[in-house]
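--- STAGE predict ---
source: upstream dedup step, 1 unique chain passed
mode: sequence only
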Amino acid sequence: MKNLRNFCIIAHIDHGKSTLADRLLEITETITDRDLQEQVLDDMELERERGITIKSHAIQMEHEHEGENYILNLIDTPGHVDFSYEVSRSLAACEGALLIVDAAQGIQAQTISNLYLAIDNDLEIIPVLNKMDLEAAMPEDVKDQIVDLIGCDRNDIIEASGKTGYGVDRILEDIIRKIPPPKGDPDAPLQALIFDSVFNSYRGIIAYIRIVNGTLKKGELVKFVNTEKEYDADEIGVLKLKQVEKKQLSAGDVGYIISGIKSSKEVKVGDTITHINRPCAEGVKGFEEVKPMVFAGIYPVDPDDYEELRASIEKLQLNDASLTFIPESSQALGFGFRCGFLGLLHMEIIQERLDREFDMNVITTVPNVSYKVISKKGETIEVHNPSGLPDYNYIDHIEEPYIIAQIISKNEYVGSVMNLCIEKRGALKNQVYLTSNRVEITFEMPLGEIVFDFYDKLKSISKGYASFDYHQSGYKPANLVKLDILLNGESVDALSTLIHRDNAYDFGRRMCVKLKELIPRQQFDIAIQAAIGAKIIARETVKAVRKDVTAKCYGGDITRKRKLLEKQKKGKKRMRQVGNVEVPQQAFLAVLKLD
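--- STAGE serialize ---
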């Protein structure tokens, strides 16, 4: 065990974690030149396309240092705020972390947030200044920022470049020298933490584990502490570029276990595996439950695919434990699921993965956050969906979730960043100059306001410099109303939203205008209305497609034309009573992009 090191790489998005991981794999010869490609650990097609890490990836390396062989378990983590749950799980399986800072951009919001997560887990932090090969690098300024942030010695900061491989030798040396070997007793009862899992259609569910105490041998009988299910360890092993089978794993090891589990309900991330004949006294502690921030309905385009969609979401949940879902039904869309996500990017990625990995064609409703409705009797009801809102006569008040947002920006963008936050009903809490030209602004804001387009707007007004991180702070009373969209007097529940009263008129009008463009013309007029309760606040009409019935009347009395037009009018009226308005998929997506 003394030659074992478990560490992860944490950083803000796009600071070069995955590229640096490539160099580590190359130098330790874990990967051959033939297999080498850019960001080798980002094996999902979607990750490569977007250039972001979505999943944390574990891989084992072997390295010789001063005549001794060391085993290094590396976990590369995502940097985007929407995937911070992945980072928290990776940290639970490690003893140390490489904190990577871009030498050209300096410390950003997610750097600080991930650093605090690592400190909470008592990890040894090794600061690394990456992208030293860039002309725009400001090593001395950024070193000052790192020293201010973590209070380390200036000489402890490693200068490196993921692209050229400069400084990677020193990183490996510091990992071996500074990160402590795992604590744990190989002879104690088995305690193994599940930190991730994937579904394989041939082998069932493969659980990724970190053994805290004890030893696990192939073929032994094990049980899961929380679900109390019992299994055989059919195959165990370590994670290299591919899975490598082993006879046994002991305390401190990171590996995988296959036990032929078919049902996704039986494997929970954060659960503990132990032996049946000699169980541990309690499960591994310190694993937090995920709190979804944004909710949206996901419905199959074809109602017959409901069961298939359920199976797909369950398999996806194995691989992404921060996704939560419960069944629900909608008048407009039939049966589907109300899913909880950590943010809008997370929601977009899930939708994309359902399409690519499971070939599921789905409709996503307007995303919203969860509200607390306090009734006049004093009862509290949690509402994830506007259609679940009780009648106004019963509501005393509605409370909405608030967040503390930390934004780090250059000082020339402070004014426009503040304007944006105040527009979104934010209240300034604090403003700190980290250096002469970098400011950290702390705002308290309603979560519902940042769900839509806040992040994109922040990036555009700050020319990409501002970084953003947030955590939930609690609930506060709010003046919210339910905005309904009516088509020919019928409410489309999938388009209804809970919105602040001041923004309702403007949003309702924009929705009507957008829907008018998207809904195809029918043989009858379609009235598109936005309503708050019984009060209509905006209206647009999609005009009917009309046949020119008077074309054949040439000359003669006007009454001949009038008679034909009256006949057509009656037909349109009758058609309107039985006609159905189909809302196209683009309409649901357009609402998300209303700007």
